[in-house]
Amino acid sequence: MKKHVIPAVLAIVVLIVMFAASCSDSRKSLELLSGDVIPSSAKLFGVSGEAYKISDIKSKYKVIFYLDSTNEDSMKRLDCISKTISLLNCKDISCLIVWEDRIPVEDIQKAGIDKEYNYSLKNKVSLSESKPNAFLLDEKNKIKIVTGYSYVALLNELINLNGEKDLSVKAEKMIVNNVSKSGDYIDNNKGKTLLMFMSSGCKICRVSEEVVSKNIDSMGKKINIITVRPDFDTRHSYDKNLEIDPQQIYFNIFCHKQGIQASNRKYPMFLIVNNDYSVEKLFTDANEAVKYVLGL
User: Fold this and answer.
1) Calpha distance 93→75 (Å, rounded)
2) What is the CATH number of domain 44-161?
3) 268 preceded by cis ω (within 30°)?
4) Which fold has domain 168-294?
5) How do the domains of the chain map onto residue ranges?
6) 232 in helix, strand or coil?
7) DSSP string for residues in 138-194
8) Which of 178, 212, 81, 207 is nearest to 134 (CA)?
9) Successive 10-residue mean pLDDT values, the chain, 296 residues
10) pTM of this prediction exceeds 0.90
């Protein structure tokens, strides 16, 4: 009799565990899509443990950056989120960083992000299986955009939502300030800066890299030079002053300011910027940019 009872008991225990696990998973996983509304049952917990609902945060638009502290790609995205909050936050847009598990306080502080932007779901619910992810919500907390891994479309929408506000001045100040912290940046006091938006991802880009590389020393005697590269690119030997452009936020801000439509935005792009942050010249051809700089 005992021979039959023990296997039966074990089988029942296994079934109970499997059933409990499946119930837990279905309860936690929402996988929100465009058009969905974030349910009020999804409680957000601040750094001090206080509980909120998404409806408690009043704003015309909300951006939720959805991350997991155990996910390497999520942690790498903090630089982009920090710059997004600094450059694109305005009275109509509230930015939230929602962690599925816990708030990594030391990491967000290192990234220069205020703790007040951070909330945790404490593993009680999952908004999306994929991370990093982001959501743009309207006033009724209805999801307008789900980004998936790439934030580029979301950032362009946020740039548009800022209206006629000139974001390029703040962006250039941030670029110069960040590069200055490296200790390698030397302002030659000529009052002009060449921002070179470069990428190695296409044939014309590689040709432009060669042109710039051959003339970089001569150009550096005429003007301050900063290379701005997307985060998927690699540093080149002539990138003496380099600023990483996470998710192409800088690139799209300057393109928007210059009236370049999203479908026409291509690398390389060269901007001659005056000391009052006005753009003196824009070039998309490396030879023309080099010729202009050497003639200063």
Assistant:
1) 23
2) 3.40.30.10
3) yes
4) Glutaredoxin (3.40.30)
5) 44-161, 168-294
6) coil
7) -TT-BEEEE-TT--HHHHHHHHHHTTT---HHHHHHHHHHHHHTTS-----SSSEEE
8) 81
9) 50 49 54 90 93 92 97 96 92 94 97 96 94 95 94 94 87 93 66 92 88 94 94 90 96 95 94 93 96 93
10) no
